[in-house]
Amino acid sequence: MHSTVVVLALKTVASGLFVAAFAVVASMLSPKRLAGVFAAAPAVALGSLIMTVALLGNAGAVVAARGMAVGGAGFAVSCAAAVPALRRWGVLRGTAMTIAVWAVVSAVLYRVVRP
Amino acid sequence: MSARIEIHPERVREAGWRPLLIRFAFGASMGLIAGAVTLLFGAGAGGVFLASPATLLASLTLVAREEGLHSARDECRGATCGAVGLVAFGLLTAAGLGPLRWPAPLTLFVATVCWAAVGGLCYLVMRALIGDEDET
């Protein structure tokens, strides 16, 4: 139990640090569309996978990476849907719709692919 | 019309600590959620949350407030390219750590480069097809 909490805490901090680091890079870039590429960086994945491999070994990281590919496909579809959604509904409802699209697409793909 | 690609290091200092802390908090939250899902439902399900759009959406709300909705939409278009790169990252990481048996640091480094290459290529194709500036 103690080690599980430690692993979870380390993954949490590492993910936050990588997201902040990629955000620094994104903030320096123009045009905004190029900076947006870094907004979809594998930051959380890097933080989590590094801790997983270092503390628990490769096996779990392999399965997690396959799941991440599924989530990434859902992410791409949701981003494409977000552009018209933001235009039509504004930021709050547009982002809520984006999360919903990601969840539905990822869930369907997860059932099909079964990583 | 395509805008010039530029790097502005001074923007980091101008933005201050608050946006970075907000993004750290969102990133840490997603890491915690992904870890919790892994514990409850397995590594595959937890892995899906490693590619959640939550941190992007946090960024979009900040960008929309400070720079306007058109900038947020532009960031979304770019994130679509980055997300395509995420799929490549995931697949390469799974292959490298799995059947290819590469060392973990090499695998993650190559996968990150692959994400950048795929995302960058997608961005350049988008730039060639529809230009670089959002219609306001």
TrEMBL record, chain A:
UniProt key word Amino-acid biosynthesis: no
Keyword Methyltransferase: no
Keywords: Membrane, Transmembrane, Transmembrane helix
Residue ranges crossing the lipid bilayer per the database entry: 6-29, 36-57, 63-83, 95-113
Pfam family, one: DUF3147
Name under which the protein is recorded: DUF3147 family protein
Biological source species: Pseudonocardia acidicola
From TrEMBL, chain B:
Pfam annotation, one family: DUF3147
Key words, A-Z: Membrane, Transmembrane, Transmembrane helix
Top-rank taxon: Bacteria
Transmembrane segments: 20-41, 47-64, 76-100, 106-126
Record-linked InterPro entries: DUF3147
Protein's recorded name: DUF3147 family protein
Organism name: Pseudonocardia acidicola
